Automatic annotation (TrEMBL):
InterPro entries found in the cross-reference section: Phytase-like_dom (IPR027372), UCP031900 (IPR014567)
UniProt protein name: Esterase-like activity of phytase family protein
Alphabetical UniProt keywords: Signal
Annotated ranges, domain Phytase-like: 62-313
Signal peptide: 1-23
Amino acid sequence: MKLSRFALCAVAALCFASPVAPAGEDIPVQVSVINRFAPGGQTRFGDLEFLGGLQFTSPDRRLQSLSSIRFRRDGERFVSVLDTGHWLTGRIRRDGEGRLSGLGELSVDPMRIRGGRIGTKYNTDAEGLALRDGEALVSFEQLHRVDVYPDPGFEASGPLRTLPLPIPRREFRMNGGMETVAVSPKESPLRGAPIVITEESLDDKGNMFAAVLEGPLKGVFKVVRHDPYNATDGAFLPNGDFLLLERRFSFLTGLGMRIRRLKGEDIRPGAVVDGEVLLDADMRYTIDNMEGLDVIAGPDGRPHVIIVSDDNGNMIQRNIMLEFRLNR
C-alpha cells in the first residue's frame, strides 16, 4: 500500500512530471552512495551489520512506487514490481570493496492481465513478488489475488494462472491486502511452498491474516501485529526462517521501520506467529518509506539483507536501497 494514500495528501502537488523512456529501453538513473545509516555512524545492530546503500532518482517518472524486490541467484540482477502496475528490472553494481555503488540496465514495462492486455491501476496494484523456477508470483491488492507469470517472459505476457487463496475473500481489506508473497526454501519445513502475509487485513484479535498457498501445510495462519506497524515485505533465510519488513507512520512521530525474524518451524496452519525484532529504526536513521526486502547470498558466505523504499513519486521522499549482513 502506498504511504501517500493515508499520509501525503497535503503534498500531492509536489509529484514529478518528467520525460519517459520507451518501454523496454534502459532508463537513466542518478545514484549517490549512502555510507551512514545510524546516528553516530553505528553499523552493528545485534545480528545485523550495515554495509552501505544507495539513493537514486531518475527523470523517468516511472521509476517510483517500488513495492517489492527479488534478486536472481547471481545476487546482482533483480526484478521489482511497482504498485503503479509496472515491472522494473535491473542490476546492482559494486565497488572494489564489494559495497553497493550503482544501478544499471534498468527497464520498466507495464504489467499485463489475462489476454495480454495492459492493466489498469485497479487490476495491477502490485504489492508482493516472489520468483521460483520458471515463474514469477505477484500479489495484488484492490483486486485481491496472486497471479503466476512466466519467467522469463513476464514483461510481455499475461498471467498463466491464479493461485487459490485459503484466506476467505471477505477478510481482505481494500488497501490492506497481501503485501508480501515469498517462496520458502525447498529444504525448509514448508518444502518450497509460497506464503502470503497481509498488510492490514486483521482478525478479531488484531492479528494479520497470512497463508501457506501450496503443499501439505497449505492453510491459514496469523502473524501478530504490533500496532502501529504494518507488514510491507519479507523473504526467507536459507534455514527457513522468515524476515518480515514492517513500517509505521504518523504525523506526530514520523516514519519508522523494523525487521522481525519469524521461526520457520512456527509457520503452519492455525498458528499465530511472532518473532524477535532484529532492527528498529526511526527518522534519525537513513530510512524512508521502506517497502521491499530480499535476502541474497553474500560473497562472505553469510546472508545479506537488501531493503528498498518507495518514494511514491513525491519529491520530498526518496528511493533508497540499503544492505545489511546477517551474522547469525
